[in-house]
């Protein structure tokens, strides 16, 4: 069997496995949402606002969640009716509205962030090295989907100006200069509230170093 054919078959099996995970996550998300009196989309927005630790405009929410403007507006309006979010004029533009969590919204967001625990428990059964390889592989896959413009760009360490990738993370960890912390592969964040997008050259350097490991 040629390497190309084997590669295609392996990619197909990986894709099928991811689809099965997606099915399980969708089912669990709806089970949680129904119990909380929300939809998965509303729960996702609450978690996003909690992660950002500050107000977000509707356009930003739509972009981060890959939702249409209409769907985002409807979901936020429902959350506002439930008293979980509130709209205020944006500090940098009085003509624009920003959305932020209420006290009840923060409580709901914390609960919403816990629904994937079933998956975390499954991943937790993997050995430490397996988790590290798995996470690295997922980050690479997410990055490729971003490059292909299939998903919105994430605020991940590897495209951040503060991140310094290490060629030998097991000996010399990665580092975040802004927070002054060292990071193993599994500490590299997919979404960070203090993210600042790096220039193209820095991004390319970090990804080259990161992708050649493992």
From TrEMBL:
Q: Which residues form the signal peptide?
A: none
Under SUPFAM superfamilies, the record lists: Winged helix' DNA-binding domain (SSF46785)
Q: List, alphabetically, the Gene3D superfamilies matched.
A: Winged helix-like DNA-binding domain superfamily/Winged helix DNA-binding domain
GO molecular function: any one?
DNA binding
Key words of the record: DNA-binding
Claim: DNA-binding is one of the keywords in the record: yes
GO biological process per UniProt: response to stress
Q: Organism's domain of life?
A: Bacteria
Q: Does the keyword Mitochondrion apply?
A: no
Q: HTH marR-type domain: from which residue to which, for each copy?
A: 11-143
Stored PROSITE patterns: HTH_MARR_2
**Protein name per Swiss-Prot or TrEMBL:** DNA-binding transcriptional regulator, MarR family
From what organism does this protein derive? Paraburkholderia caballeronis
